[in-house]
């Protein structure tokens, strides 16, 4: 059981989201209705509505809710779109995406996290998401091209193979930076001529790593 006021914490979070410029009513509605407590372990339940990243299994983290909302808003997800997410982690961002896109493909390198996230989304009756054990550096060719791509682990440079799977006119949001250094969240728009790149803010994500972890 929670020993804190859930409604008050939720109201505070929504207020903070508005303050940082998350104004899209659909996204605010998702943030309000998708319960973050479903995506953290028992020991972090009392902190699940704080605007902080929290530890999850496999030494990874569930992102800060304000950052989830901010990145989602910058994806500008159109109706009837196909979205690729790299770095499923807890599945929280995946659940938000599932409400805005028609299909979501989410890939994760840790088998344990894939299994847990799949179970969580099933419990929430989310059926338009496919979570796959894959190395994100390769994107997901069988379903390319994508309307939108979100990367939730930091990479040293824009992964070429992944961006090649983005449609012209598509948007990708990706944190770029060297391990243990300041990272920049980039919004990349693919045009006929190339990539339009805008820096959104400084962020701190776990680093994207090569290869799968099956144990
Ligand atoms: N949005 C997630 C954030 C998870 S942290 C959430 O809110 O829960 C980033 C995730 O990216 C981690 O789970 C990590 O295992 C995963 N990751 C790192 N490198 C990867 C790769 N090459 N392919 C797929 N997933 C990767």
Describe the structure.
There is one protein chain. The chain has helices at residues 6-19, 25-33, 65-75, 92-100, 111-123, 160-163, and strands at residues 54-55, 61-62, 82-86, 103-108, 129-133, 146-151, 166-176, 183-190, 195-203. The strands form 2 sheets. The chain has a 7-stranded mixed β-sheet, with helices on one face. It has a two-stranded antiparallel ribbon with strand order 1-2. It has a single domain, classed as Rossmann fold, CATH 3.40.50. The mean pLDDT is 94. The protein contains 6 helices and 9 strands. With 215 residues, the chain is α/β, with parallel strands linked by helices.
The name CATH uses for the topology is Rossmann fold
Strand order of the largest sheet: 5-4-3-6-7-8-9
Rg (C-alpha, Å) = 16 Å
The biggest beta sheet reads: 7 strands, mixed
Oligomer: single chain
Structural class: alpha/beta
Instruction: Give the distinct bound molecules.
Output: S-adenosyl-L-homocysteine
